[in-house]
Specification:
The complex is a heterotrimer. Chain A is built from 11 helices and 10 strands. By secondary structure, chain A is α/β, with parallel strands linked by helices. In chain A, the strands form 2 sheets. In chain A, strands 6-7-8-3-9-10 form a 6-stranded mixed beta sheet, with helices on both faces. Chain A has a 4-stranded antiparallel beta sheet with strand order 2-1-4-5, covered by helices on one side. In chain A, helix 3 packs parallel to helix 6. In chain B, the strands form 3 sheets. A 7-stranded mixed beta sheet of chain B has the order 7-6-8-9-10-13-14, covered by helices on one side. Chain B starts with 7 loop residues before the first helix and ends with a strand. In chain C, strand 1 and strand 2 form a beta hairpin. The radius of gyration of chain C is 25 Å and the shape is globular. At the B-C interface, helix 2, helix 3, helix 4, helix 6 and strand 7 of B face helix 2, strand 2, helix 11, helix 14 and helix 22 of C.
Chain lengths: ~290, ~375, ~600
C-alpha cells in the first residue's frame, strides 16, 4: 500500500507492556474518504493500536502522520485538535452531563471562546469571556447549540426528546449514539469507531449499521474496529486483520475473508470469549 | 442561661462553696444578690483542652475562697467558661457574646496568642478588659489599653534563667532546644541574648514542632555541636520526652529547663531521666510564703494532687481580679482603672501585684532555682 | 565538605531506624487495609491511641503483667477495628469512593473524643518494666523496647505475608483485593474478609500504640493524626498495599527525616516527610518496590460524584433567603452576627472548594493552604502600607496564581491520591510559612494587621464586616454559578466525569484544572484575607489541617459542586458547634457522629451534588 496520498499514515507502530509486545511494527494507511476496518480476535492489539494513534497511550516505536504532519505521541487533546475523533470500546459518555452538553464537548476544539491567543492573560480572558459573555460569545454558543441539535436529530427520535436529560439516564444503545454524535461534533478528518455495536441487540445493531453507512455515504474517512463481521464486510472498502499484535492480512473484504491466515487466527482462538460467533459469522460471510 | 454554660464540675464546686459559706455563717459573711460574672474564653475541647481543665481547677479553688470570704462586697463571684477550642474564629465570636452581655464585667483568656490576639481588637473597641494570664507573646498588651496581663513577662523570666545557667551553674557552651511557637521563639531569643551578655556561647539552637515526639536525631545534631549544657524552652510533656531521649543517647550534660516543666507530670513522664534536671520557677509549692501555703494546701485538699504553675496562674488571676473589684468597684471601667492602681496585694506568684500602666504587665516575680532529686523538685542550694 | 563528613552519620542512622520502626509498625496496618478495602483508613491513628490507653488501663491502673496487657490490647484493638468495618465502612459499600475515607475521618474524631472524655487531655506516663537491657551502639544506646518495636514490626509483616500467600483465607483476602466483584461471584465472603482484615489491622495498630507509649513513656489523646500521617507516607513509599514494603517505607521515612534533621535542623522534619510523599506520588505512585515496568492501571472511568440531582431552589426563595440572612444584625445580637460572619467566611472557602472538589472532581484535603496564602499576602501587603481594599484584591490574585501553581503537581493524580497529594501540599505550605522567617516572621506570626476598611470607610464594626462578607458571598456565588452555566462549567464537569474522554475531545485538562484552581484560589484568597484583617493576628497554624477537613465536610454536606449547598452547609456547620456549646466536652463527639450519619444516609449532601 502506497504511503503517498494517505490521509493518515502510521508506520512501524510498536507498544510493549512488560514482556508482551501488544502492537508489533504495525503499518496502517488510510486515504481520504476511505472506510478501513480492523478485525482480529480479542487481544490482537486492535484497541491498543487505536489508543496509540489517538494519543491515549504512548508508542515505544513508530511514527504517525496526518496529512503529512507528524502527530506521533502528541497528547490526546492535540491529536483531537488535528481532527481525529474516536469513540470508545465500552462507551465513555459524561454521565452527569446532558445529551446536549456531551455533544457540545465535541465542539470544544472549535470553540473560539476557549481559544484566546493572548499570551499570559489567556486564562483570565477565557474566564472573563465566560462571565461577561459578549455578543460574539453568545452568537457562537447559539450556533454551536443549533449545530449540536442538528447532529442529534440525525439519530431520529432516539436522542432529540432526551436532549436535556443526563446521559446516565439513557439506555446503553442511546449512550453509544451520543458518543458518535459527540465525535461528529468535532468535525473530524478521521472518525475512529471502536466496536460501536458492542453489547447491542440485533435491531439496534442494524440501526447503528444504517447510521455508519450514512456516515460513509457522506464521504467521511472512517476507521472501524468491529467483531460483527457481516457489518464489516458490507461497509468496508478495505480490511486489515490483526493477530498477536501483527497485521496478518490486508485487502478488500473478499480478499480478507478468504485468507487462510485470518480463518486460522479466528478458529485458533475459539476458546476466547466472543470469538466463536465471530468465526461463525466469518464463515457465514464467506458463503 | 449563663449557669447552663458552666460545666457540672464548676457548678458543683460553687454549690459546695455556697454550703460552706452558709455553715460558717456570720464569721465570713454570706454572699447574696446578683453575681459578679467573669467571662472566660479558653479551650475545653481540642488539643489544648488540658490547659482549660487546669485553669478551671485554679479558678474554682479561688472562687471557693473568695465567696467564703463574702464574695465581692457581699455579691457572689462567678465565671462563665466558653469553650473556644483555642480557635481564633471561635474566640472572636465569644468576644462578641461577652461584650454584648452587660453582666460580664471582665474577660479572661484566651489560651494561645492566636486565639487571644484575634479577639483583642473587639475587646478594645467594646471597652471590656481582656485579661490574659498565659499570653506571653510580647505584643499581647499592645493592641490597646484594655489588654492587661499578669503573665510573668519573658523579658524578666529569661534573663533570670540565663543568670542561673551561666552564673550559678557556670555553663559556658549552651545548646538551646525550643518549641517553634511564638512562646518558644520569644523565650529562646531573650535567653540567648541574656546568656551572651553573660559571656556564654550558644553553640546550637533547634526549634521543634509542638506535636514532635522523636528527638533522637535532633539531639544527635545537638551533641555534635559539643555543648556543656542543654537549655529547654519546652512545656512539660515535650520536655519530658527530650530528657528521656537525652539519657537514652548517653548524653549526660546538665539540663536547665524553663519553669513550664515544673509539674508533677514532668516527673512521671520523664521517670528516672528527670533526675538532676534544673529549672527556675516563679511558683513552687515548697515556698514558705503564707499565700503559697494556703493555695497549695487548699488545692491538695480539693483535688488530691499537687498544683502546677497553670493552676497557680489561674488561681492568681481570679484573686487579683477579685482584689481589684473589692477595692475599686465592679463596672467594666472600674476594673480597667483599678488594674492600673492596685498595689500591695500579694499573690501566689507576685509578692506585690502592681501593673506598669504603660505596658499593662506585672513585674517583679521571685525566681527560685530547683533541681530534681530522688524523683522530686527540691530547692537548689549551691 | 569536611564538616559534613564529620557529622555522626552512624548515630543519625540509628536514630532514623528507631523512629522508622515506629512508622513501619503503623504502616503495616494501613497497607493491609488499603490492599483489601482500597481505602486509606484515617481512623488508624485513633485505634493506635485507643490501644495506648487500654494498655495504660491494664498495665498501670489494673497492674496486669506485660504479656496479659499485650493480649488484652490486641483483642480490644481487633474488636475496635472489626467494629469500624461493620458500622462505618460496610454500609457504604455502594457509595462513591470518597465516602468510606470520610467515614474513617468521622470515626477517628469520635474515638479520639471518647478517649479524651474518659482519660482527660493530659499526657500520661506508661511505665512498664521491661528487662533493663541497653546496648551501646555508636555513641548512644538502644534498649529492649526499641528492639521489641522493630522485631514486632518485622514479625507482623512476615506473619501477614505468610498469611496472605500461604493460607486459604489469605488467598481469599488477596482475591478480594484484586477484584471484589469476581471474588464475590466465586463465593468468597467479602464481608467476613473485610472484617477480618480490619480486625487484624486494628490489633496491630493498638499494639503499636502500646509499644510506642512504653517507648516514650508517654501517651496522649492528640497523637492520632500525626502518627497516622507518617504511616501514610510510609505506605506511599512502600507501595500502598505492599505489606512488607510498608516496613521498608517506614524505615526509609525514618532515615530521610533523621538525615534531614542532620543537615537542616529539627524544624524541617515534617517538610521532608511531606515533600517525599509528594515526590513519590508524582514519580513512583506504585511505591519504591514496585516492579519497574508494571503495566499502568486501566484508566479510572468512575467518578467520586454520584448521579447529580441537585435540589433546584426557585429564584424567589434564594432572594428571600439572602434578605433574611442580611437581616441577622437586626436581631441585635452581636454574638450571633459574629458567628454568622464566620459561617459566611467558611461559605466562601467552601464555594471555592466545591468548585474543585465537586465540579472538577479533585477532592482536596489541603484547601486551608489557599486561605493561608491569601491571609499572609493581604496581611504583608497592607502592613507594608497598601490600602486594605487593594491588599484584598492583590492577595486574591496572588492566591489565584499560587493556587494553580501549587496544586499543579496534583493535577496528574487520580482518586485517593489527589486527596493525599493535596494534603501534603497543604502541610508543605504551612511548614514553609513556619520556616520562611524573613518573610513571615515564622512562629511569631504576623501581628497588627490593619482592620477591614474600603477606600477609607472603616468596616470593623460587627455589622459592617458582616454585610461586607455577605456581599462577597453573594457576588462570588453569582459569578461561580455563571461560570458553571458557561462552556467552562461544561468542560470542568466533563473532566470530572471522564478525564480521558475529555482529553480525547480536545480538552487540555491540566489547563482547565489550572483555571478552576485559579478561580477557586481567588475566592479562597479573599476568604483568608478577610479573616486575617478580622483576626489582626495570624500565624502558620491559623489555617491548619483541621480547617481543611472542616471545609471539605461543609462541601460534602452541601452536595459536591453545589454552590447554594456550600453556603447552607457552611451556616449549619459553623452553627452546629454553637448549638452543641452547652454540651462542652461532648461537642466534637456529636460533630463526628453527625458527619458519620450524613455520609451514611445522605451521601449526596443536603442540596444534592451538581
Amino acid at each position: 500500500m502506497a504511503t503517498e496520498g494517505a490521509l493518515l499514515s502510521a508506520t512501524g507502530i510498536t507498544r510493549r507492556f512488560g514482556g508482551i509486545t501488544a502492537v508489533d511494527g504495525v503499518d496502517l494507511h488510510v486515504r481520504e474518504g476511505e472506510f478501513l476496518s480492523v478485525i482480529g480476535p480479542n487481544g490482537a492489539g486492535k484497541t491498543t493500536l487505536f489508543n496509540l494513534i489517538s494519543g491515549q497511550d504512548r508508542m515505544d516505536a513508530g511514527r504517525v502522520t496526518l496529512e503529512g504532519r507528524d502527530i506521533t505521541n502528541l497528547t490526546p487533546h492535540r491529536i483531537a485538535e488535528n481532527g481525529i475523533a474516536r469513540t470508545f470500546q465500552h462507551g465513555r459518555v459524561f454521565g452527569n452531563l446532558t445529551v446536549m452538553d456531551n455533544v457540545l464537548i465535541g465542539c470544544h476544539t472549535r470553540l473560539r471562546a476557549a481559544r484566546s491567543r493572548v499570551p499570559v492573560l489567556a486564562p483570565v480572558i477565557e474566564i472573563l469571556r465566560a462571565l461577561i459573555r459578549p455578543a460574539p460569545v453568545r452568537a457562537e454558543d447559539a450556533a454551536m447549540r443549533a449545530e449540536a441539535r442538528d447532529i442529534i436529530a440525525t439519530f431520529g427520535d432516539r436522542l432529540t426528546p432526551r436532549i436535556d436529560q443526563p446521559t446516565y439516564s439513557l439506555s446503553y444503545a442511546n449512550r453509544r449514539r451520543v458518543e458518535i454524535a459527540r465525535a461528529l461534533a468535532l468535525h473530524p478528518r478521521i472518525l475512529i469507531l471502536d466496536e460501536p455495536t458492542a453489547g447491542m441487540n440485533e435491531s439496534e445493531t442494524a440501526e447503528m449499521q444504517q447510521i455508519i453507512g450514512d456516515l460513509k455515504a457522506q464521504g467521511r474517512t472512517i476507521l472501524l474496529i468491529e467483531h460483527k463481521l457481516n457489518m464489516v464486510m458490507q461497509l468496508s472498502d478495505r480490511i486489515m486483520a490483526m493477530d498477536n499484535g501483527k497485521v496478518i492480512a490486508e485487502g478488500t473484504p473478499a480478499q480478507v475473508r478468504n485468507d487462510p491466515r485470518v480463518i486460522e487466527a479466528y478458529l485458533g482462538h475459539s476458546s476466547i470469549g466472543g470469538t466463536a460467533p465471530a468465526a461463525k459469522s466469518l464463515t457465514e460471510g464467506a458463503q | 442561661m449563663t449557669i447552663l454554660s458552666l460545666t457540672r464540675r464548676s457548678f458543683a464546686a460553687m454549690t459546695l462553696a455556697g454550703t460552706v459559706a452558709a455553715l460558717s455563717g456570720a464569721a465570713f459573711g454570706q454572699t447574696s444578690g446578683e453575681p459578679v460574672l467573669i467571662g472566660v474564653s479558653g479551650p475545653l475541647t481540642g488539643p489544648q483542652a488540658q490547659y482549660g481543665a487546669q485553669w478551671k481547677q485554679g479558678f474554682d479553688l479561688a472562687l471557693d475562697k473568695i465567696n467564703a470570704e463574702g464574695g465581692i462586697n457581699g455579691r457572689p463571684l462567678q465565671y462563665v467558661f466558653q469553650d473556644s477550642q483555642n480557635d481564633p474564629r471561635q474566640s472572636i465570636a465569644i468576644a462578641q457574646k461577652f461584650i454584648s452581655d452587660p453582666k460580664i464585667v471582665v474577660e479572661v483568656g484566651d489560651f494561645s496568642s492566636t486565639a487571644s490576639m484575634a479577639a483583642s481588637p473587639l475587646y478594645q473597641r467594646g471597652r471590656l478588659v481582656q485579661f490574659g494570664f498565659t499570653n506571653s507573646h510580647p505584643d499581647f498588651t499592645k493592641t490597646g489599653d484594655y489588654m492587661w496581663s499578669n503573665t510573668v513577662p519573658q523579658t524578666q523570666e529569661q534573663p533570670l534563667m540565663a543568670d542561673f545557667a551561666t552564673k550559678t551553674l557556670g555553663l559556658k557552651r549552651l545548646a538551646v532546644l525550643h518549641l517553634n511557637t511564638d512562646w518558644g521563639t520569644t523565650a529562646k531569643n531573650l535567653f540567648v541574648d541574656a546568656a551572651k551578655a553573660n559571656g556564654a556561647e550558644v553553640v546550637a539552637t533547634e526549634g521543634y514542632l509542638p506535636d514532635e515526639k522523636d528527638f533522637r536525631a535532633t539531639l544527635t545534631r545537638v551533641r555534635a555541636a559539643n555543648p556543656d549544657g542543654i537549655i529547654l524552652e519546652s512545656y512539660y510533656a515535650d520536655g519530658a520526652l527530650i530528657v528521656r531521649q537525652l539519657r537514652d543517647l548517653g548524653i549526660d550534660l546538665p539540663v536547665v529547663a524553663t519553669g513550664s516543666v515544673y509539674s508533677p507530670d514532668f516527673l512521671s513522664l520523664a521517670g528516672d531521666a528527670a533526675e538532676g534536671v534544673y529549672t527556675t520557677v516563679y511558683f513552687t509549692p515548697n515556698s514558705p510564703r503564707p499565700e503559697v501555703r494556703e493555695f497549695v494546701e487548699g488545692f491538695e485538699k480539693k483535688f488530691g494532687q499537687e498544683p502546677n504553675s497553670f493552676n497557680a496562674m489561674a488561681y492568681d488571676t481570679i484573686n487579683t481580679l477579685a482584689a481589684v473589684m473589692r477595692q475599686y468597684g465592679t463596672t467594666r471601667e472600674d476594673i480597667k482603672s483599678g488594674l492600673g492602681q492596685i498595689s500591695g496585694f500579694s499573690s501566689v506568684i507576685f509578692p506585690d501585684v502592681s501593673f506598669d500602666p504603660e505596658t499593662r504587665r506585672v513585674s517583679g516575680p521571685q525566681m527560685t532555682g530547683l533541681v530534681v532529686r530522688d524523683g522530686a523538685f527540691t530547692l537548689y542550694e549551691q | 565538605m569536611e564538616s559534613l563528613l564529620s557529622l555522626p552519620w552512624f548515630d543519625f542512622t540509628i536514630s532514623g531506624v528507631v523512629i522508622g520502626s515506629i512508622y513501619a509498625l503503623m504502616a503495616v496496618g494501613l497497607a493491609l487495609i488499603f490492599g483489601v478495602a482500597n481505602l486509606i483508613n484515617f481512623a488508624h491513628g485513633s485505634v493506635f491511641t485507643v490501644g495506648s490507653y487500654i494498655g495504660w488501663t491494664c498495665a498501670v491502673a489494673l497492674g496486669l503483667p506485660l504479656w496479659a496487657t499485650v493480649l488484652v490490647v490486641a483483642a480490644a484493638g481487633g474488636i475496635v477495628g472489626a467494629l469500624i468495618e461493620l458500622l462505618a465502612i460496610r454500609p457504604l459499600n455502594h457509595q462513591s469512593r470518597i465516602a468510606p475515607l470520610l467515614a474513617t475521618i468521622g470515626v477517628g474524631l469520635i474515638l479520639d473524643q471518647i478517649v479524651h472524655i474518659i482519660f482527660g487531655a493530659n499526657p500520661r506516663a506508661l511505665p512498664v518494666s521491661l528487662p533493663n537491657l541497653r546496648f551501646s551502639i555508636g555513641s548512644g544506646t538502644i534498649g529492649a523496647i526499641d528492639i521489641t518495636i522493630f522485631v514486632t514490626g518485622v514479625i507482623s509483616a512476615l506473619a501477614l505475608y505468610l498469611f496472605l500467600f500461604h493460607s486459604k483465607l489469605g488467598m481469599a483476602v488477596r482475591a478480594t483485593a484484586q477484584d471484589g466483584d469476581a471474588a464475590r461471584q466465586m463465593g468468597v465472603g467479602i464481608n467476613a474478609i473485610n472484617m477480618t482484615v480490619f480486625g487484624i489491622a486494628g490489633a496491630l495498630g493498638a499494639i503499636a500504640g502500646l509499644l510506642v507509649g512504653i517507648y516514650y513513656n508517654s501517651i496522649d489523646p492528640n497523637a492520632s493524626f500525626e502518627i497516622m500521617l507518617k504511616g501514610m507516607v510510609a505506605i506511599v513509599i512502600g507501595g500502598m498495599s505492599n505489606v512488607p514494603g510498608a516496613i521498608g517505607g517506614g524505615l526509609i521515612l525514618g532515615l530521610i527525616e533523621s538525615y534531614g534533621i542532620a543537615l537542616f535542623g529539627a524544624s524541617y522534619r515534617d517538610l521532608f516527610a511531606f515533600a517525599v510523599l509528594l515526590l513519590m506520588l508524582l514519580l513512583r505512585p506504585n511505591g519504591l518496590f514496585a516492579r519497574a515496568h508494571a503495566r499502568e492501571a486501566e484508566p479510572m472511568t468512575g467518578t467520586f460524584v454520584t448521579r447529580a440531582k441537585p435540589v433546584r431552589i426557585p429564584a424567589w426563595a434564594l432572594v428571600a433567603g439572602a434578605v433574611l440572612i442580611a437581616l441577622v444584625p437586626a436581631l441585635g445580637q452581636p454574638y450571633l452576627t459574629q458567628v454568622m460572619t464566620n459561617a459566611l467566611l467558611y461559605a466562601l472557602a467552601a464555594m471555592s472548594l466545591t468548585l474543585v472538589a465537586g465540579t472538577l472532581g479533585l477532592i482536596s484535603i489541603g484547601h486551608a493552604a489557599l486561605l493561608a496564602v491569601g491571609a499572609y499576602a493581604s496581611a504583608l501587603l497592607t502592613m507594608a502600607g497598601l490600602p486594605v481594599a487593594l491588599g484584598l484584591v492583590l492577595a486574591a490574585a496572588i492566591t489565584a496564581v499560587l493556587g494553580a501553581a501549587l496544586t499543579y503537581p496534583a493535577f496528574r493524580l487520580r482518586g485517593h491520591y489527589v486527596a493525599i497529594g493535596t494534603l501534603a501540599i497543604g502541610e508543605i505550605v504551612a511548614l514553609v510559612i513556619l520556616n520562611w522567617t524573613s518573610l513571615t516572621h515564622g512562629s511569631m506570626g504576623l501581628y497588627g494587621i490593619p482592620p477591614l476598611e474600603l477606600f477609607g470607610i472603616p468596616l470593623f464594626s460587627t455589622n459592617a464586616s458582616y454585610w461586607f462578607v455577605l456581599a462577597l458571598v453573594i457576588v462570588f456565588a453569582l459569578l461561580q454559578m455563571r461560570l458553571l452555566s458557561s462552556h467552562l462549567g461544561r468542560t470542568w464537569r466533563a473532566i470530572r466525569e471522564d478525564t480521558i474522554a475529555a482529553e480525547t475531545y480536545g480538552v487540555a485538562s491540566n489547563y482547565y484544572k489550572g483555571l478552576a484552581f485559579g478561580f477557586a484560589g481567588f475566592v479562597a484568597g479573599i476568604s483568608g484575607a478577610v479573616s486575617a484583617h478580622q483576626f489582626s493576628y495570624i500565624n502558620y497554624d491559623t489555617f491548619n489541617l483541621l480547617t481543611s477537613v472542616l471545609i471539605l465536610t461543609i462541601v460534602i454536606l452541601g452536595g459536591l459542586g453545589n454552590v447554594t449547598g456550600a453556603i447552607v452547609a457552611a451556616i449549619i456547620v459553623a452553627g452546629l458547634p454553637e448549638v452543641f456549646r452547652t454540651l462542652a466536652e461532648y461537642r466534637m463527639l456529636f460533630y463526628g457522629m453527625a458527619l458519620l450519619l450524613l455520609i451514611r444516609f445522605r451521601p449526596q449532601g443536603l442540596m444534592g451534588s451538581d
